[in-house]
Amino acid sequence: MELKIRKARLNEIDQLMNIYDYARQYMQQTGNSNQWINGYPSRELIISNIQEGNLYVCIDDVGKEIGVFYFKIDEDPTYAYIEDGKWLNNKPYGVVHRLAGNGKYKGIAAFCFDWCFKQWPNIRVDTHEDNKVMQHILEKEGFIRCGIIYIANGTPRIAYQKYNGC
């Protein structure tokens, strides 16, 4: 199967929300009941991400949406302060947030992270301490655990970075 990445479209919102619904259920089943709670990410947030041009879909060879993620090359205010470690560098970076797959295909996260890294050689990402699945994927993909950051609501997240050294 040949996967592709493209910008998400507003007319796909229902399919994308279904992917996020699946991801929330999967997190619950794998011991991560504290991340993406209370309907996060909301439909309004995802619509806003699409309108900004920062939400992407991973599609299969027949054009079906099988994954979704936020990607932006810009500083993230939640990454301004890091404790129990430090970032690999202070160079401009891209961020990946809200990565989710539909559960029907293996390797979607790796494919999406590889695509992001091809767009920009310095990527930062964070995940909840209970999200062992994502931690494993990040480490397998060569991301380095850098420390702890705090998201807007004040809860901690494990911060990772991958940099190609250029």
Description:
- It is a single chain.
- The chain has 166 residues and is an alpha+beta fold.
- It is built from 4 helices and 7 strands.
- The chain has a 7-stranded mixed sheet with strand order 1-2-3-4-5-7-6.
- The longest helix has 17 residues.
- The radius of gyration is 15 Å and the shape is globular.
- The relative contact order is 0.18.
- The model has no long low-confidence stretch (mean pLDDT 96).
Number of strands: 7
Topology as a string of helices (H) and strands (E): EHHEEEHEHEE
Percentage of β-strand residues: 25-35%
What general outline do the C-alpha atoms trace?
globular
Sheet with the most strands: spatial strand order: 1-2-3-4-5-7-6
Category from helices, strands and their pairing: alpha+beta
* Low-confidence sequence ranges: none
Range of helix content: 25-40%
Main beta sheet: 7 strands, mixed
pLDDT averaged residue by residue = 96
Which radius of gyration do the C-alpha atoms yield?
15 Å
User: Roughly how many Å apart are the termini?
Assistant: 32 Å
Our count of helices gives 4
List the helices and strands and how they pair.
Elements: E1 4-7, H1 13-29, H2 43-52, E2 55-59, E3 65-73, E4 94-101, H3 108-119, E5 122-127, H4 132-140, E6 144-150, E7 156-163
Parallel strand pairs: 4-5
Antiparallel strand pairs: 1-2, 2-3, 3-4, 5-7, 6-7
